Q: What sequence folds into this?
């Protein structure tokens, strides 16, 4: 079995990056830049007043004749001569001839004459043309997801269209007779379909949709047919369950009959060992073990970065940061353990609290955790106070 | 002027929490729980096999007569007598009488007789009824946003409908003649509308929409009319610009003529001092200064937590964590500085890199930052190596 790092390498190298397309900036939220962006003109492109006040041209004293008002967005239609001024609003272009700007609260205007006692120095309170940036300056890098403050920055920079990566087509195949949907209510010995909603949640967080979804009963022919159909339509085919040692684990059997090549058969992580990943041309198949905890962890560890790569993102690596354990946590050497934790801040320091159960067959406590402890193969049990590496869902799933 | 902490207190106490409604769990992604949730039945509700293998009832030796197959989701229609077994799949209900489960790889089956050499101990590899949780166990707390792993947990717990908070109605009023839309191209001395897209981006990240949007020119009557109309429709009215000392800053004037009560007039932060917040019944008006950097910072510091509170969230406090400066950064005592930073990880430690400019009139560098340094009133300039408190956009905007 490959090591965790090698599994990542093999999977990530098998991902094909999507094509690009040009879209309106208004449709670009959550998409990924497929070009380096630069600033197309000087910022600002005129000399602007930094405040509400008076643009003045120095004269012989501290009295200035007011030539008029310039609002933000206006271009003044007059020049200032010696001893003249103009009322200017924040962000207004100052008239030609302006030496500096004086704040409105430092001036008194009477009958068109503005007096100030402020010290007058050349250039003060003027945001000079190109002060923020000259045309051609780098704005944003290819491979960044357009969100938070990058999205409005594109508008600020006057960009109306952006080249972005297309999004991978994702299909999900649910297997298993035991799966119920919540509207049907509980039935003894059966479990509710959870894994489809893990995929839905995760895709939504990273800006993708599930385009195709099929459920198949535990039947070999039906599984084969569904898999082939989905492989025609999708770039990523994700299945849940059917990869273990059971008689009804058809995914594995069916796979050996298709022309997909298996690139991963099992991965040394807990929960989630029996992962299968296969490839055909630029399509990737993820056969993820069916216990929801195992499914979630494999999704976060392998599938999410793979999807980010397909989207063209350069920030697909896990963001592991140090956190101090406030409870003991258990792991065994030889496998990478991903233990559920509650990450919290205490005086600026991240702390991690182990939750009651880390069992693969349990999932309810995923309702209350916001991260995973990443406990490499060489780490055993850990006590309160130990420093662990943590994954925070808000950071990984964004 | 109130301190930053007092501004937060005054604003947050003025927020009205939205009513609640019951929706399908399928529409609940990104919404906020308005009830504590508990587990409605035992998990699991039968005794399940933990693996693919054989459920056995101890007999006189290590040979067992195979009574049949139980798939996951099936209820067995037979009991095991002494010396009998049944093939069981992972998650299948084991027959009555089962003592333990043996892994399929530890057994050999020939002509309906299963032999094993494994040590047989009572209870092994059975997930007993209520092993994960008993009915009534706490699942998730009121006030949590339904995202990431909480969303699929609701399905796992068989919840088909959830009580959530309604969402506040948000309206945005853009003021200023100088604002252009990106499709019109640049014009000398004018700037592109950026602040509406800051609001759009931020609302989207926390799961809200902008329901109403209006742009008004620098005209007192038009501003008054737009404000009154929006106040009828919305819970939060946000305006951009018009709150400074300028002659065209009508927002301020108009406000003094309405029956909104001003609760904040200015806040000691940089960028973004001239914030105005006013209240009428359960409606809040945010008059946010127009420089995009000031607008973004006020939005993140005050508006986002206020919106989270309105949504019923209990996790609205800023998540400030320690980061080490890899560059110097500048601030002056007496105001809370929010400096743009690039947060990165180095061997598990968060580092913060100051960007070239922290000027209020600059915004282009928001394209490349992912957080803000939070530099309280008592902090002056800081050198490389100093520890700062940092806000990460991925965490705050989620």
A:
């Amino acid at each position: 079995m490959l090591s965790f790092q090698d599994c990542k390498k093999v999977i990530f190298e098998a991902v094909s990056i999507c094509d690009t397309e040009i879209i309106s900036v208004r449709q670009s939220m959550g998409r990924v830049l497929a070009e380096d962006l630069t600033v197309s003109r000087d910022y600002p492109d005129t000399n602007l007043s930094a405040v509400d006040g008076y643009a003045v041209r120095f004269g012989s004293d501290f009295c200035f004749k007011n030539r008029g008002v310039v609002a933000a967005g206006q271009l003044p239609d007059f020049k200032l001569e010696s001893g003249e001024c103009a009322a200017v609003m924040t962000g207004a272009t100052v008239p030609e001839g302006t030496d500096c700007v004086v704040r409105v609260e430092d001036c008194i205007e009477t009958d068109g004459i503005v007096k100030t006692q402020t010290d007058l120095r050349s250039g003060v309170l003027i945001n000079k043309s190109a002060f923020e940036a000259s045309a051609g300056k780098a704005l944003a890098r290819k491979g960044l997801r357009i969100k938070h403050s990058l999205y409005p920055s594109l508008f600020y920079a006057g960009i109306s269209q952006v080249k972005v990566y297309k999004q991978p087509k994702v299909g999900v195949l649910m297997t298993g007779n035991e799966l119920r949907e919540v509207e049907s209510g509980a039935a003894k010995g059966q479990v509710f379909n959870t894994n489809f909603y893990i995929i839905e949640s995760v895709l939504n967080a990273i800006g993708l949709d599930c385009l195709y979804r099929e459920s198949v009963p535990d039947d070999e022919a039906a599984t084969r047919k569904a898999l082939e159909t989905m492989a025609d339509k999708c770039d990523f085919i994700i299945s849940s369950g059917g990869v273990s040692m059971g008689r009804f684990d058809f995914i594995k059997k069916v796979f050996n009959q298709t022309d997909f090549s298996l690139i991963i058969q099992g991965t040394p992580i807990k929960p989630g060992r029996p992962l299968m990943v296969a490839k055909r041309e630029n399509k990737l198949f993820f056969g993820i073990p069916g216990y929801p905890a195992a499914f979630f962890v494999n999704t976060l560890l392998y599938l999410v970065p793979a999807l980010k790569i397909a989207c063209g993102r350069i920030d697909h690596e896990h963001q592991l940061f140090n956190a101090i354990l406030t409870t003991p946590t258990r792991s065994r050497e030889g496998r990478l353990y991903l233990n559920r934790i509650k990450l919290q801040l205490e005086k600026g320091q991240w702390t991690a609290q182990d939750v009651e159960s880390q069992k693969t067959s349990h999932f309810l406590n995923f309702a209350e955790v916001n991260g995973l402890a990443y406990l490499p193969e060489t780490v055993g049990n850990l006590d309160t106070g130990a420093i662990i590496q943590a994954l925070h869902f808000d950071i990984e799933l964004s």
User: Anything to note?
Assistant: Chain A has a mean pLDDT of 94. The first strand of chain A starts at residue 20 and ends at 24. Residues 321-396 of chain A form a domain with the Beta-clip fold (CATH 2.40.340.10). Chain A touches chain B through 113 residues (CB under 8 Å).
